[in-house]
Amino acid sequence: MISAALVILKTDEERNILSVFYNNYKDRLLAIAFSKLHSKSLAEDAVEEAFMQIATKPEKFFSLTDEEKIRYFDVVVKNLSIHMFNKINKQNYENIDEHESELFSTITLEDNIFDGISHGEIINFINNLPQLQRSVLILTRLNGLSIDDTAQALNVSKDVVNQRLYLARKSIKEFISERNR
Amino acid sequence: MSEHVFAELLKESYRQEFSQYDSSPVFKTSGKHNRAMKRIFKIYEKNVQKLHTNSIPAYTPKPMRRLSLKAISIAILVAFLAVLAGCAVAYFISQSFHGEKTSVSTNLLPINTENCPTTIEEIYNISGVPMEFEKISDNSNPFSRTVEYMNNSTKQMIVFSQYTKLSFSSINLNTEKHELEEIDINEYKAVFIEQSNENHSSGIIMWDNGDYVFEIFGDLPKKELINLANATKIS
Fold this sequence. Notes:
The complex is a heterodimer. In chain A, 73% of the residues lie in helices and 2% in strands. Chain A has 8 helices and 2 strands; from the N terminus they run ααααββαααα. In chain A, helix 2 (40-56) crosses helix 4 (66-89) and helix 6 packs across helix 8. The model of chain A is unreliable at 1-9 and 92-113 (pLDDT under 50). Chain B contains 4 helices and 14 strands. Chain B starts with a helix and ends with a strand. Residues 58-65 of chain B have low confidence and may be disordered. Chains A and B meet through helix 1, helix 2, helix 5, helix 6 and helix 8 of A and helix 1, helix 2, strand 7 and strand 9 of B.
């Protein structure tokens, strides 16, 4: 009886999680989408699509911590927005200049030398990876998503996720070994 | 670099990219968007409900069954063997490469690293890149060189790399569903790993020509990748 009541309570909580999350972070997510799409109505479309992904498969959302939920939506909304922008402008997915160099000025990690290379240099290199490679790294390595779930979240095939993961790790390893010489 | 440190660096990279949105201004959403979101939350609620209905099985009391000592022993043995199988590390060896192979990935290193150049002295290129592919990057340092080509309409990629043998180590090749295969590239023994499925062709070829290690990764069928590898020449 008690366990049945707890299940109902848990369901009620879970029922509201998505709308509560949306109300807390909608400005952030719409700002991310707007920065890529430069259109209010397209930014709204991108955010709707991201939430629709979760609405149709809610089980994935429950297993994420609060931090992971934000990270998930940040990355998914950004990717959907870039994807939409490219579709509209018929541009190459990988070649968008994201003007990210300005972000490097906010490094707060200590620039300790690690194996002959500073953390700042590695972060700088990761920041400059093609955006799809970085998104795949964040979702798989930080959020612990499977290849399957990452592929679904980013709207690409599993092979593309595997390949981008491989290419990202390969270039980071090459960069570090080159700088350590 | 440890995986933990790498995760921390990745986290910092993420933070740098997204912290600018921490205090985003209020975005006045349209009525259309608000209606769409309400509809999305309804779909979500319905699916959450469905999820729980499916996950609560109807209670049907089962008769208690006593487990025999033999059944318990078998269960322990099966669990032990399953753990062993999960942790097993095999050793891969071909004529040119060797490395450790876990249940999901394989790392390869060239076997013979004697009398090979320590820096890249002769630059190689693939000469048969299909017309539709455009060179999008060419990065080199004294120890390795990587050239990327992309077909802009299909997003297929070809990545050609040349390494000094001492600087080469393959990175966790995904061998969970695909086996490493030994093939011939010109007069050298190469390793090929197919990554294709029914919708997508892709693979990686690695070979050692005595002086350098070469790697071609491409979203192409095996035969075309082999043709590309066979067409590698000194520039």
